[in-house]
Amino acid sequence: MEDLDQTFIQAPEHRADSNSIPNQPEEIPVIDLSRLNDPEDIQNVISEIGDACETWGFFQVINHGVPCDARKRVEETVKIFFDLPMEEKIKVKRDEVNPAGYHDGEHTKNVRDWKEVFDIYFKDPMVMPSSTDPEDEGLRVVYNKWPQFPSDFREACQEYAGHAEKLAFRLLELISLSLGLPKERFHDYFKEQMSFFRINRYPPCPRPDLALGVGHHKDADVISLLAQDEVGGLQISRRSDGVWFPIRPVPNALVINIGNCMEVWTNDKYWSAEHRVVVNSTRERYSIPFFLLPSHNVEVKPLEELLSPENPPRYKGYKYGKFYVSRNRSDFKKLEIQNIQIDDFKVVT
């Protein structure tokens, strides 16, 4: 086996073989959204989504309305980009200030991930806080970066992202209904949404026993929609006991998971599950997540309607934009301190 750069090596307790059951028979729910066309089945679908959010924090959807052709087009186009020479890819490389574009040095919890990424903001330009300083109210504008080749890269990505965003809001309404809330309850939080769309490429790794495609983490968003290829590699940590098990790729399905914002809004009723990506030594893998993020000025805190004397707030409120900027900069490079986590806002009891 080849030597692996030290920056990629996970601590023993976080490696692919730690606390995992590779052939775990238990699977997250696969929910057929075409059932929403049957008035007598709508409430069943809503209940199944609520149960999945509470038990797993993950589920898969089929017949979801995102056209297979749009997904196939973006998959084929981005592969052409990632196959380009490095000198071409770095022409649209991201930096510490502008998070859009290509990057091959992503870190998760201060360990480098075995992957390349390309990030695209849904709103272009996009507004975010200019610093992590809570007292600094300054804002900055960031713009997407687009490669010259392949020529249809931008069009293919924007087409797919439009379909993904539409589905994200449909799911958000179903999740709201599952909580007994009006379906539009969350809409006002997205007037200046910071949502973004990512392409991940995981090359074959010489030491998949030591490195991870993405280290263990929870998503900092509201909900994520993931298109994954047939190779597989995504694993989630089970809420009941923390054991890791794989998410089986289902043809044309999308993997949905709950992020930190929804976990806080529901006061821990719905679960933002830790997940990671294991790699292999023979096959590259692609995945395409869409992350639904609220506006930068939204204060994320438990919803009043879901609180009671028996269920007091478990989190202090936090400004989403500041949280995002802090997390994003720690993803860009290794820091000497642990990056900010949602548990930092837990109410001490």
From TrEMBL:
InterPro entries: DIOX_N (IPR026992), IPNS-like_FE2OG_OXY (IPR044861), IPNS-like_sf (IPR027443), Oxoglu/Fe-dep_dioxygenase_dom (IPR005123). Keywords: Iron, Metal-binding, Oxidoreductase. SUPFAM superfamilies: Clavaminate synthase-like. Residues 192-294 form the Fe2OG dioxygenase domain. Pfam families: 2OG-FeII_Oxy, DIOX_N. GO terms for molecular function: dioxygenase activity; metal ion binding. Belongs to the iron/ascorbate-dependent oxidoreductase family. This is Fe2OG dioxygenase domain-containing protein. It comes from Brassica oleracea var. oleracea.
